Every structure is written in structure tokens, then in C-alpha cells.
């Protein structure tokens, strides 16, 4: 039983902040299992020419080409708490960074190191469970968005997440109702909260049906 608990705690820790060789494998699995959630967030933002885009917790960012091909003259900025993921994303997207279309940065997960009203669009996928102080952090996101800017938050349904054994270790889970309350604390307008279901391979290797949401908020 203790071995199981240790494994689940270690998996939860890697999902929150990938590190070491194991973290690379976890990140690859996350990219594959989260790609529909990521694409849904990207599509919700309706990227337009010249947009400045910020992603919070981008992982290995293998999805960057899909963001950059949506519109011309866009610039992407990524923020990560994982040093490994910041390094991996930079290496995997070297062409985009060399062309000055993308840059990847480390931060502490609480203070966003950019000026007020910098970005047109912000997205984050499956990171909200790890926000240490959600009410303060969503105000930080609001601060760095331009007026009229959009934020897309992809997250899995609370009931689904509760069925996964590792979420007992350090995950703070969300319902649609809680997202509404959180958005209101920062004066965000809720444009839409869409839902979708998909079949994915769980960390245990079996197929499960996941219900997820994309909350589209406007400053």
C-alpha cells in the first residue's frame, strides 16, 4: 500500500512539475493525452494577425507550430515552473525561437513577469489544479491582458478527476461553477464555457472517458 501511495505521490509531483529523465516521458505522455484540450483552447482564442500570446505551463510545447500557423506576425511567450520543460520547449522549438516568434521563460507560478496590458490572448491547459492562490493568480492574468483580451482555461471535470487515484495528492479540482466564481473575483467576463468528452489512455494504461471544459474569459 505504501509503495502505491509513493508511486501516486511521485506521479502527481511529475504532473505538476516534470523533472529528471522521468519528467521527459511524463511530458510526452501529457502532450499526447492533452492535445485535444490544447487544440480546443487554441481554437477558442480565435488568434488573429499580430497577436501577442502567452501560455502558462506549456510543458514540452510540441503544439507550438499549431499556434503559430493560426495567424501571421504572432509572437508566443511561454512560462513554466519546470526548468526541464522550459529547456525542452526551447530545444524542440529552436526554429521558432531563432525567428523571434517564440520565447520560453521560467517563473515562480505566482507573479507573471510581464507589464500590465501586454498580451492579446492567454491560454493554459490542465494547470489550474496547481495554482497556489487561484484568486490572486487570476488577477495577475487579468493584469497582463490587454483590454478586450481573451483567456482560455482548459480543465477536466471535477467528478472525472476525482476518479483518478493520483489527484488525491496536491490537485485542487474545479467544476464549472467554481470557474464562474473565480472569474468574477478578477472582473473577467465569461464569454463561454464549452464542454467535450473524449476517450484517452489513463496513466494506468486503460481507456477512460474524460469530460473537459474550455472556459473563455474576456477582460
Total number of domains: 1
Strand order of the largest sheet: 3-2-1-4-5-7-6
The major beta sheet can be summarized as: 7 strands, mixed
Count of individual beta strands: 7
Binned, the helix content reads 25-40%
Low-confidence stretches: none
CATH architecture: 3-Layer(aba) Sandwich
SS class: alpha/beta
- Count every helix, treating DSSP H or I runs of 4 or more residues as helices: 8
- Globally, the shape reads globular
Description:
It is built from eight helices and seven strands, in the order ααβαβααββαβααββ. With 219 residues, the chain is an alpha/beta fold. The protein has one domain: Rossmann fold, CATH 3.40.50. Strand 4 (119-125), helix 6 and strand 5 form a beta-alpha-beta unit. The protein is globular and about 45 Å long. The mean pLDDT is 90.
Please outline the helices and strands.
Elements lengths: L1 H15 L3 H26 L6 E5 L7 H5 L6 E6 L2 H10 L1 H5 L3 E5 L12 E7 L8 H11 E12 L1 H5 L13 H10 L3 E13 L5 E12 L1
Parallel strand pairs: 1-2, 1-4, 2-3, 4-5
Antiparallel strand pairs: 5-7, 6-7
Amino acid at each position: 500500500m505504501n509503495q502505491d501511495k509513493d508511486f501516486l505521490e511521485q506521479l502527481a509531483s511529475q504532473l505538476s512539475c516534470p523533472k529528471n529523465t522521468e519528467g521527459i516521458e511524463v511530458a510526452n505522455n501529457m502532450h499526447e493525452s492533452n492535445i485535444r484540450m490544447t487544440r480546443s483552447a487554441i481554437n477558442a482564442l480565435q488568434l488573429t494577425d499580430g497577436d501577442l500570446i502567452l501560455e502558462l505551463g506549456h510543458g514540452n510545447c510540441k503544439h507550438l507550430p499549431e499556434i503559430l500557423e493560426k495567424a501571421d506576425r504572432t509572437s508566443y511567450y511561454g512560462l513554466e515552473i519546470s526548468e526541464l520543460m522550459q529547456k525542452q520547449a526551447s530545444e524542440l522549438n529552436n526554429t521558432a525561437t531563432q525567428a523571434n516568434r517564440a520565447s520560453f521563460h521560467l517563473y515562480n507560478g505566482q507573479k507573471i513577469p510581464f507589464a500590465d496590458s501586454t498580451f492579446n490572448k492567454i491560454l493554459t491547459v490542465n494547470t489550474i489544479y496547481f495554482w497556489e492562490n487561484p484568486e490572486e493568480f487570476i488577477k495577475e492574468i487579468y493584469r497582463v491582458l490587454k483590454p478586450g483580451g481573451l483567456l482560455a482555461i482548459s480543465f477536466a471535470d471535477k467528478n472525472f478527476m476525482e476518479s483518478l487515484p493520483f489527484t488525491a495528492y496536491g490537485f485542487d479540482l474545479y467544476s464549472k461553477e467554481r470557474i464562474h466564481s473565480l472569474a468574477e473575483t478578477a472582473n473577467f467576463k465569461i464569454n463561454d464555457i464549452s464542454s467535450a468528452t473524449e476517450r484517452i489512455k489513463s496513466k494506468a494504461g486503460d481507456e477512460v472517458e474524460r469530460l473537459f471544459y474550455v472556459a473563455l474569459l474576456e477582460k
